[in-house]
Design a protein that fits this description.
Keywords: Transferase
GO molecular function, one term: transferase activity
Organism: Streptomyces solicavernae
Strand order of the largest sheet: 1-2-3-4-5-6-7
CATH superfamily of the largest domain: 2-enoyl-CoA Hydratase, Chain A, domain 1
InterPro entries: AcCoA_carboxyl_beta, ClpP/crotonase-like_dom_sf, COA_CT_C, COA_CT_N, MCCB/AccD1-like
Pfam family, one: Carboxyl_trans
Radius of gyration: 25 Å
């Protein structure tokens, strides 16, 4: 056994201070999550309940197997968006949960937010959910109640929004089951959601599915009609054939959805590990709160994190004496094998880059998923390092990450700046899942560095023109830029733009990653055997 030794003293002053700073950030995060849970607000929630309807998350809870977790994805979507009418959460709940023993991707419109209408952030969230479902071959269940596009923002929805229906047909063509449960409106373009799903359940006297409602039909054809005869659940069950199952009420619809999943004969590509054989970490996950300093310029040892998330705190480190600013090694997490790359001192040098490229190749040879734990300021700069080949060595690492075919998971613990974000498998490099801790920050570079670069460029420009330099204006510019970059590098800002799949409590990291690894093993995968492109040596 190669059990990691921990040097943490939970009673030490620095650990206590780091823990307090993290708890403050978690309190801020909880306040923002509460906005998503509140949906459209008390008025619209009560109106919805007054109609005898369940809320989106209540529907999900009834759908899931009892006492099983739900991994919610992108709960902060639309946070900080320019348009205040776009509620936090983007009028949709998405996540992964277990239904009749089957891991499923679940999406649910939140009808308390503008009738569940889709806005541009809803689309982004739905598209990301499809990516996750397709990559991991997860059956999808769509809990539908939406008036369609949010008309004031139709110019941003109509053209790209058609991909929602393409995605449904692509999943079906790939043999991935799709299920629609219609609780209320599913009109106009939204009618194609049940139209393109493999299995459709509608709630009697509640579901309304039509391309054009009675007013539009009247305007277009002069025909008089009513909701029920035009698109009611019973009509679709008896006459059009669009509904496969007619439910008496919402609980009955969810019961029928569970029966549909039970009859899918769905099997995972890989058997799950025996939970009884999985050893818990040797160290308390509560201590994860005190590992990352409030000031990210202060380094921390990522082995302390690894020791609190992997099985038995058992970690076989690869090349421990070479490229020490990047920790690499092998472990298991909830019984699933993983290769781990974790930033130690922040900066990536040539040695770390070459070490990472070799390690990624080894993981692909052995079909082992990779976990990237971010705390990097990027690749080292300076004359010595440029002459030493930092560009070609950093490119080697990015090449390896880009062409690796094993599943990748990323967690942003601290800094994730510059091309280091790319080399550590940031969002643009298609990790299966990417989460952030409240302590994380990500941008092209740190706020002070970016402001300083702009200041130097402006100063050089003034000198070249023979003009005096305004020091007061420079100080004001630097302060403004630092404030802007600081706010734009924070995890809630980035999560609101769906640059991650959620900001998580560090104590939940092992559980979240375990659920992700379980979902990943639903689909077959194979590592790259070559095909990495040209490595510049």
């Amino acid at each position: 056994m190669t059990v990691l030794n921990s040097g943490i003293d939970p009673t030490a002053a620095d650990h206590t201070a780091h823990r307090a700073a993290m708890l403050d950030k978690l309190a801020e995060l909880d306040a923002e999550h509460a906005k998503a849970l509140a949906g459209g607000g008390e008025k619209y929630v009560e109106r919805h309940r007054g109609r005898g309807k369940l809320l989106a998350r209540e529907r999900i809870e009834l759908l899931l197997d009892p006492d099983t977790p739900f991994l919610e994805l992108s709960p902060l979507a639309a946070w900080g968006s320019a348009s205040p009418e776009y509620a936090v959460g983007a009028a949709m709940v998405c996540g992964i949960g277990v239904v009749e023993g089957v891991e499923c991707l679940i999406t649910a419109n939140d009808p308390t937010v503008r009738g569940g209408a889709s806005n541009p952030w809803t689309l982004k969230k739905a598209f990301r959910s499809h990516e996750i479902g397709l990559a991991n071959r997860l059956p999808s269940i769509h809990l539908v109640e939406s008036g369609g596009a949010d008309l004031p923002s139709q110019k941003e929805i109509f053209i790209p929004g058609g991909a929602l229906f393409k995605h449904l047909t692509q999943s079906s063509a790939a043999g991935i089951p799709t299920v629609a449960v219609v609780f209320g409106n599913s009109t106009a373009g939204g009618a194609y959601v049940p139209g393109m799903c493999d299995h459709v359940i509608m709630v009697k006297e509640r579901a309304k599915v039509f391309l054009g409602g009675p007013p539009l039909v009247k305007m277009a054809t002069g025909e008089e009609s009513d909701d029920e005869s035009l698109g009611g659940a019973e009509m679709h069950a008896r006459t059009s054939g669009l509904a496969d199952y007619l439910a008496a009420d919402e609980p009955d619809a969810l019961r029928q959805a569970r029966r549909v999943v039970a009859r899918l004969n769905w099997r995972k590509a890989y058997a799950d590990p025996d939970p009884a054989a999985v050893a818990e970490p040797k160290y308390d996950p509560e201590e994860l709160l005190g590992i990352v300093p409030g000031d990210l310029k202060i380094p921390f040892d990522p082995r302390e994190v690894i020791a609190r998330i992997v099985d038995g705190s058992d970690f076989d480190e690869f090349k421990p004496l070479y490229g020490s600013s990047l920790v690499t090694g092998w472990a298991a997490l909830h019984g699933y094998p993983v290769g781990i790359l974790a930033n130690a001192q922040g900066v990536l040098f040539s040695e770390e880059s070459q070490k990472a490229a070799q390690f990624i190749q080894l993981a692909n040879q052995r079909d082992i998923p990779l976990l990237f734990l971010h705390n990097t300021t990027g690749y080292m700069v300076g004359k010595e390092y440029e002459q030493g080949g930092i560009i070609k060595h950093g490119a080697m690492m990015i090449n390896a990450v880009s062409n690796s075919r094993v599943p990748h998971l990323s967690v942003l613990m601290g800094a994730s700046y510059g091309a280091g974000h790319y080399g550590m498998c940031g969002r643009a490099y298609d990790p299966r899942f990417l989460f952030a801790w409240p302590s994380a920050k990500s941008a092209v570079m740190g706020p002070q560095q970016l402001a300083g670069v702009l200041s130097i460029v402006a100063r050089q420009s003034a000198a070249a023109k023979g003009k005096p330099y305004d020091e007061d204006a420079d100080a004001a510019l630097r302060a403004m830029v630092e404030q802007q970059i600081e706010s734009e590098s924070l995890p809630m800002f980035l999560s609101g733009r769906l640059y991650d799949d959620g900001v998580i409590d560090p104590r939940d990291t092992r559980t979240v990653l375990g659920m992700c690894l379980s979902a990943i093993h639903t689909a077959p995968y194979e590592g790259a055997r070559g095909g990495f492109g040209v490595f510049r040596l």
